[in-house]
Every structure is written in C-alpha cells, then in structure tokens.
Amino acid sequence: MLLSESSTPTGAHRRILLFSWLGWLAVFYTLILFFQLSMLFRQELGLDDDGVKRVKAVALAMTGVGGILFGIFADRFGRRRAMIFSILVYVAGTAAAGFARDLVEIVAYAAIAGFGIGGQWAAGQTLLGETVPPRLRGRFGALAQTGAPLGLGVATIVATQVAPVIGWREAFWLSCAAVGMVPLILWLVPESDVWIAHRSNVVADRSKLVELFSPGLRGLFAVAFFVTLFNMANYWFTFSWLPEYVGRRWNLEIQRTGQWTLIFVFGSLTGYLLYGLCSDRWGRRRAFTAFCALMALGLTMITLFQEAIRHRPEIFLFFTFLAGVGTGTWSNFGPMYTELFPTHVRTTAGGICMNVTRGIQFVAPLMVVWVGGRTLGAGIALAAGFAVLAGALVWLLPETRGAAVAEI
Predict the structure, then answer these.
(1) Is 407 a residue whose pLDDT tops 60?
(2) Using one digit for the tens of pLDDT, what is the confidence trace for 385-399?
(3) Per residue in 121-149, pLDDT tens?
(4) Is the pLDDT of residue 282 over 80?
(5) What's the chain look like in SS3?
(6) pLDDT at position 380, please?
(7) 145 phi and psi, to 5 degrees?
(8) I want to staple 67 with a disulfide (CB 3.0 to 4.6 A). Which of 52, 118, 212, 385 is the partner?
(9) Residue 406: what pLDDT?
(10) Residue 295: band (very low, low, confident or very high) from pLDDT cuts 50, 70, 90
(11) Domain-wise residue ranges, the chain
(12) Rg (CA), the chain
C-alpha cells in the first residue's frame, strides 16, 4: 500500500511534514535575511538603494535557476536527494556572505544562496503531496507552508533585534545551522513511494522540459505558471521593500520597524493555516480567489489610502495584518501542483512554476523604487493589481481537490 493510500496519517507522514516544514522555514528565513540585513550591511559595504536592489534582485533571480535544475534533479534522482543538496548549496552561499567585503562579493554569495534556496520548496512539497492522504492534502500543504511566515518572522527578529547587537555577518553565519538537517533527513525521511513506483515509466532520454510543452500539458502548465507569476509578483512587490516603507513613512527606528513588520507575519501565519482548511472544504479555486481579495484590500489601504489613516496607526496595522492573511494563497500551490501534474514531471513543473516565477521577481525591487520613488508606496501598490489578476486567472484551472496522485 502506498503512503498516500493510508486512511490516517502515520509516523512517516509526520516526519515528511516536519522536514518539509523545516526545510521551507530555513530557506525562506535565509532569503528574507538577504533582504532585511540590507538595513545594516549597506552601511559597512557603502551601498545605496541601487546597490541594495541588486543584491535582492540577484538572490531572487537565482532561485529561478535553482528551481529549474533542482526540479529536474528531483524527478530524475528523487525528492529527498534534492532537498539535501539544496540545503548544502544555500548554506555555503550564506556562510560566504558573512565574509563579503564589497558589492560584487555580496551579490555573488547571494546568487549561490539563491540557487540553493530554489531547490528546497518543490522537492519538499512534492514529497509531501505524493505521500499524504488526499483528503488531508490541503491541510498538510498549508502546515508545511507555514514555514514561510515563520521564517519571515525569525528573519525579521534576527535582522532587526539581534543583528544590531551581534553584527550582520554573525547573523548570516547563524543560518548555517540548517546544515544539521542533512543527516536527519537521510535517517528519518523516506523517499516518495509514488516516485519510486513511477521511475520505470520515465523515458530517460526525453527532456522533462520538452514534455511540459507537449499538447497534453502545455495549456495546463501555462495557466499554472501565470497564476503563480501574478501571485509571486503580488508578494514580492509587497515585501521586497515593506519594512523600509514602514520605517520611512512612520519615521521608525530599525527595532520598531521590525515590530511593525511582525504584524504582517502574524497575519500570514493566520492566513496560511486558514487557507488549508478552506481549500479542503470549499475547493482550491474559491479559497484562492477569496484570499487574493483580502490581500488586494489590505495593500490598497496601506499604500494608496495611507494618508487617510496617517494619524491612526492601529488602522494601518489592521490592514497590514489583513494583507498578511491574504498571503495564505501560498498554501494553495503545493497541493495544486501535486494534483495537476503527472508524477514523472511533477517536481519539474512545480519547481519551474514556483521558482522561475520567483526568479522573475528580480524586477520587483527595481520597479518598486522606479514607480514609488523615495516613499516606495506607489510601487508597492502595484501588488494589489497582481493579486486581482491571480484570483481571476485561477478559474481557468480545473478544480482538483482530493485527486488521487498515484493515478496521475
């Protein structure tokens, strides 16, 4: 019997969930660290906004490259191996970042870390989606996805509360503790039995990328890609500069900026957990559109209508929290990719959709500054439009709640 055919979660399911969650938490924490520590390393390395946005853009772009290559690797050699190798790569890049002496070096190390970060999500979420009982797939995917807001929260605390005391270099080195997961994954996490069963059906000399553009898959893949792209733009147009936007508009010190940013984090954690329950009960598409609407409303209020609540910080923080709840849409993608794509190209498809679209967001830090100028608000407001587009486009995909992945 396959793990996904179990009527109730087993110890193996819980271990897979734990390390999928830990892996995503660790890589998201590391990615956000490159964004938030810029408030500190820009001074020592002599960077202006132009230099900082290059670091952020390269880190995001390289997650796309990593997503493609690690996705192909995972479909060929296994989900668990891809998780392990991605950890080793991004830890190496982050450790090196602590030794950076100028813009060229910090950009190069951000590129290495970004490449490794790109491989972790698709491998972990695919492993989880292929093994969990179908009726619980949305909830398990959401629980694993909570690693993102928690990683964001930990990165915010480290960057704004800890790093000003111990130094930004030491903050980078702290994240290297993630390498301790490697032996534990080898020891405790089983490989996907669905992937093992389907290996014999894979034509070794046929490119996974070519197959995604075959007549039976290309339409589905294209829609899934653009839904992810718009949702990704929604997120990174928001968060690439959100902490600095809050600090500048409200004249906050770095520690206070971190505290306000955590309101967004608490909203995200709430949204991720709620989304899993909603999508398993009412379907992937309905839940996705509803949460996109929450994100668009929250963002519109804290940017375009920010002046109207200028003297009411509690209202500003409420809509910041609401925008965070809207990011619960990210709990959709792991289960959705698992249910949409065949086993032998599942991680490749998910890796490309999730990580290439994130890589494309290298333009987000640049566009926010270009459109929003010094205040940044108008640039961040673009994210609300992307939320609306994603919520509408998802209806071109089939409803897949509860699909039996062993048959795909």
Answers:
(1) no
(2) 999 999 999 999 998
(3) 888 888 888 888 888 888 888 888 888 88
(4) yes
(5) CCHHHCCCCCHHHHHHHHHHHHHHHHHHHHHHHHHHCHHHHHHHCCCCHHHHHHHHHHHHHHHHHHHHHHHHHHHHHCHHHHHHHHHHHHHHHHHHHCCCCCHHHHHHHHHHHHHHHHHHHHHHHHHHHHHCCHHHHHHHHHHHHCHHHHHHHHHHHHHHHHHHHHCHHHHHHHHHHHHHHHHHHHHHCCCCHHHHHHHHHCCCCCCHHHHHCCCCCHHHHHHHHHHHHHHHHHHHHHHCCHHHHHHHHHCCCHHHHHHHHHHHHHHHHHHHHHHHHHHHHHCHHHHHHHHHHHHHHHHHHHHCCHHHHCCCHHHHHHHHHHHHHHHHHHHCHHHHHHHHCCHHHHHHHHHHHHHHHHHHCCHHHHHHHHHHCCCCHHHHHHHHHHHHHHHHHHHHCCCCCCCCHHHC
(6) 79
(7) -70, -20
(8) 118
(9) 54
(10) very high
(11) 3-399
(12) 20
Mean pLDDT of the chain: 85
What's the token pair of residue 68? 């493609």
Give residue for tokens 């997120």: 235
Q: Diameter of the chain by CA atoms?
A: 64
**Could you tell me the pLDDT band of residue 374, with boundaries at 50, 70 and 90?**
low
Which pLDDT score is estimated for 321? 93
Between helices 242-250 and 254-282, what is the axis angle to 10°?
130
Using CB atoms within 10 Å of the CB of residue 248, give its burial: 0 to 12 exposed, 13 to 18 middle, 19+ buried: middle
Whole-structure pTM value: 0.74
368 in Cβ contact with 379 (< 8 Å): yes
